[in-house]
Amino acid sequence: MSSATPRLVVGLGNPGAEYTGTRHNAGFWFCEQLADKLGAHFSHESRFHGFVANARDAGIWLLMPQTYMNRSGQAVGALARFYRIAPAEILVVHDELDIPPGQLRLKFGGGLGGHNGLKDTSAHLGTNDYWRLRVGIGHPGDRNDVANYVLKPARREEQAQIEEALERALAAWSTIAHGDWNAASTRLNVRPAPLKPPKAKDPPVQ
Fold this sequence. Notes:
By secondary structure, this protein is of the alpha/beta class.
């Protein structure tokens, strides 16, 4: 596991107004909010195939590929090569079907879970060994419904849970920025306690 400080944060999503509010764009949402937090501003950089922001004080590049999800790696690879950023210095933020809304998982390397954005990113970086922040969006229950599900907006209560999770991730940013990934993982990879069943009411006194 790498303890390098991050130099590039990538949010995965699809370009275009029709995709802005869809589940697949959770990575974009985080990147936009992080840019606001760091006082950075995005501009389109054709050589990097996406929107790029430089948070100079933090020493961080932010990237939102505009190549559509399944070609995300084209943008990630171009920027990483140009600025000589190692894969272990990259954090990719993306939607995750296998985690319920409201939950997060911060992890280094490992499998790609069938995520097309990660597949292309790994192909262009030549490795799976980079950091990922997985933003839970839940699963439709049927694998045949996945493509339609990720390209639709979340239900209102699910969206509120996703936004709360993103707020927690932003609150942990300083820990991540210092390369204290273990502490950040401990803080973010928390499963909420199961709801307790309501207590049975006492029978009325006769």
